[in-house]
Amino acid sequence: MQDFLKMYYHMDCHLHSTGYFYIEKQLYYLSYIPDPHEFLNRYHYYRYLMHQCGVQGYDIVKNIYQELLTQNYVLLLYHKEPLSIERYIQQTMMVYPFPKMKVQQIKEQWICKIDQAREKAKDYAYSFKHDQDILSLIYYYCGLAENSINILNYLLQIDNQATLPVSLSLSQPGFQYIYELINPCSYIFSTRMRHLACLMKSQMLTFSQLQQLLESHYFDVYEIIYFYARMLYPSHFFHCLLCGNLDKKMTSFFYQQMKQEREMYYQIFHILSFYVTLPKISWINR
Questions:
Q1: Cα dist. 268→51, 128, 193 in Å?
Q2: Dist CA 255 CA 247 (whole Å)
Q3: H helix runs in the chain, sequence order
Q4: What number is the average pLDDT over the span 27-42?
Q5: Are 272 and 159 in a shared domain?
Q6: Do 184 and 60 reside in the same domain of the chain?
Q7: In angstroms, rounded to a whole number, what is the distance separating the alpha carbons of residues 70 and 52?
Q8: Alpha carbon 223 to chain centroid distance?
Q9: CATH assignment at residue 51
Q10: pLDDT tens string 225-267
Q11: pTM of the prediction?
Q12: Is 96 within the bounds of a domain?
């Protein structure tokens, strides 16, 4: 990719595997974009979000032909500025005027991911170099995901046509720096409750702040029940597993998170039960 940057952007640099690199103390990010039209549409709303947060965030760097994208790649320039996390969280609770997402469709997507994870488990089990730790993690998180499916079933029993409002959402939790948090490539169009779950799992949001959000914003019953299911659903683990990123370091990370996650599920249940009736899960509700 170094030759790519030289040819189309006249940049001579060392590109890290993460896609981030520095030139003259300015941070850039290069990423492949599968659907340029969808990305540019999302970037339009991202610009509005950053404006509401009082920061610039990332700008798209045009290539030498003054084009925004080059062979489905986008180059972004980060503007380092102080970001109010509280203001950011408030602004990311905005709902956009898009068709709502069907809970049934979300359920089908989750089931598909569980099936794919189980196929991966078979591959590991039949491998001569299979890792028992990874196998145990897959079985554990597939079981956790089954609990999240049961909660969606509970929601669909209330209304089998239930839908959820759409917003900009982080695609996955697990970021460490502000420049990762506000990278436009980290966002998708999804539910604001998915975004809230990513913030909770990344420890960007405390239980007290979650309670304040629930009291200061209007979330309907469907959103709150879905949020509980979303908190249980192990999207980050499945993403790492299915993308081939589940190395020994990530395996150790997920094992270390287990006890903390279980306490978080209990606390979330306790908070949300004040607003809606939730199905109990024996190993969470003690």
A1: 31, 41, 13
A2: 12
A3: 2-9, 36-53, 85-91, 103-126, 132-158, 178-181, 192-201, 207-216, 221-232, 235-242, 248-272, 282-285
A4: 96
A5: yes
A6: no
A7: 29
A8: 17
A9: 3.30.200
A10: 999 999 999 999 999 999 888 888 888 989 998 989 999 999 9
A11: 0.93
A12: no
For residue 87, being part of any structural domain is answered with no
Strand, coil or helix: what is 212?
helix
Q: Which amino acid is at 44?
A: H
Give me the residue label for tokens 């790492």: 240
The size of the chain, in residues, is 286
**Residue 64 is which amino acid?**
I
Tell me the residue range of the domain where 48 lies.
2-82
Supply the angle between the helices 221-232 and 132-158 in degrees, to the nearest 10.
170
Please indicate, yes or no, whether residues 213 and 129 belong to a single structural domain of this protein.
yes
The residue assigned the tokens 């903390």 is 260
Same domain? For 145 and 176 the reply is yes
Number of domains into which the chain is organized: 2
Is 33 part of a structural domain of the chain? yes
d(CA 101, CA 103): 6
